[in-house]
Amino acid sequence: MSTDIGVWIAAFLTLCIFSFLYKDNPFYKFAEHLFVGVSVGYGIVLTIHQGIIPFAWQPLKNSITGEAPLWRFFVTLIPVGVGFLFFSRLMPRYSWLIRYPIAILIGMGAGFAIPRAMETSIFEQMNGTLRPFGVINSLSAGEIIGAVLMLIGVVCTLTYFFFSVEHKGIVGGISKLGIIFLMIGFGSAFGNTVMGRVSLLIQRVDFLLGDWLGIVG
Known about the structure:
By secondary structure, the chain is mostly helical. About 75% of the residues lie in helices and about 0% in strands.
C-alpha cells in the first residue's frame, strides 16, 4: 500500500465519485463540488495570466511608461472596454449593454468557425469521397469497393436530409438507405465513446489496485 499522501487523496476522491453508483451521498457531492471549484479557480488564474496580463495590462503599462507608442494605449482600451461590458449584467439598469459584447463575440466566432467548418466538413469530405476515383486504376478490389460504399453512403445520407422533395419512390428508398448509414455511423461513434469511458474506468481501477493498494504490480 502506498504511503504517498497524494496517492491517498486521489484514491479517496476516486472512491467518492464511485460512491454515486450506490446512491447520491455527501462524499460524492464533496468530490463534485471540489472538482468544479478547482476547475473554475484554475480557469480564472489561467485567464488572468494568459489573457488579461499579456493582452490588456502589459500593453497599457508599456504605453504609460513610454515603452510603447501612446496610440497603443487607446487601441487597447477598446477591447478592454468591450470586455467590461460583460459585467453590466450585474446591474439591472444597464444590463442591456451586454448585448454588444455578446454580439461581437458571436459574430467573430461565427466568422472564424464557418470557413473552418466549410473547409473541414464539406470540402475535405468531398475531396476524401472523390479522390479515390481519380486513381482508381491503382486501387485494389477492396479499396474500390470501399470507395464505392463511401460514395453511396454520402449520397444516400445527404438525400435523407434533402427535404425539398417528398421522400417517395426512388428518393424514399435512397433516403431509407441513408438512415441505415446514419445508424451505422452513430453506432460506431457511440461504441467509440463507450470504449473511451471503459478505458478511463480501467485506468482508475488500475490506479486503485496498483498505485494505491499495491495488489497489482
